[in-house]
Amino acid sequence: MNSTPPIARTRQQILPQRRAAFSPSHWIGRVLIYLTLASIAFVILIPFAWTISTALKTPRQALMYPPEWIPDPVVWQNFITAWTSKPFDVFYRNSLFIAALSIIGQILSCSLVAYGFARLRFPGRDILFLVVLSTLMIPFQVLIIPRFVLFKTLGWLNTLLPLIVPNFFGGAFNIFLLRQYFMTIPTELDDAAKIDGCGHWDIFWRIILPLSKPALGAVMVFEFLDSWDDFLGPLIYISSEKYYTVALGLNAFRNDYFMEWNLFMAAAAVAMALPLVIFFIAQKYFIGGIALTGSGGLKQ
Questions:
Q1: Does the reported pTM lie above 0.85?
Q2: In this structure, are residues 217 and 289 in contact, taking their beta carbons and an 8 Å threshold?
């Protein structure tokens, strides 16, 4: 029988861990990890820093070689000129409208389908789920012509409908993301709700969705960035400038001011300002949803 008091045994377990934490090899390893991460972050931030630097330069400084990182003088007027040279307020409004409805459509459709795959038992469920996942391997370019013919038949060309309506029919990646997260929620909660008289809709609406905020936040961030950065879709379906998105507006701005790199960089900074703000605000849910999604199994 072990006569060592519990407190003494706890100290015996903790002290080696503390010694290991303060050992030189431990600190060297952490320093190397931080240096590696800082180096990667520095490389990634170079294009962003160059964009901001060029956006604040005069036309002569923007074309200077060798380039100068710090503009002198700093020309804040470039942002106002870029914003007013093209109707970026219209482009922003169109992109926000598309992104908002796309997020709503994806959340509604994907969460319902994911709940069915995660909680309902029916013949062929796993095979059907694999079929849904297999659609991820179909390139968007393969679907361009059939979709264009379909939307032309419906009379939706040169409207925002082709960029909004398909999102109400779900997406394989978001279905997979939500399904995996739903499977991490204990089924005992469903059983307790059924005892209280709840059906599948009540379980989905009152239990699953409130507990899935991180995953839903990740889907919202993914869908917003995907909708905001989409260039090929608007380019195919939209021809009038009044329906341009930010991506199309930025391309039109480049065609008109292709030699004024300072103004183009200012317009690019304006275009990416909102996605950066949205990401930093929602990064808690985004990272939490991605981190917890993989803990669900393939079968229930």
A1: no
A2: yes
Distance CA 294, CA 179 (A): 10
Residues 276-286: b if buried by 16+ CB within 10 A, e if exposed: eebeeebeebb
List, for residues 142-178, the tens digit of each pLDDT value. Answer: 889 999 999 999 999 999 999 999 999 988 999 999 9
Cβ atoms within 10 Å, residue 177: 22
In degrees to the nearest 10, what's the CA dihedral of 210, 216, 221, 224? Answer: -100
Which candidate, 98, 223, 104, places its Cα nearest to that of 159?
98
Domain count, the chain: 1
38 in a structural domain? no
Question: Residue 43 domain-assigned?
Answer: no
Parent domain of 286: 83-293
CATH number of the domain enclosing 229? 1.10.3720.10
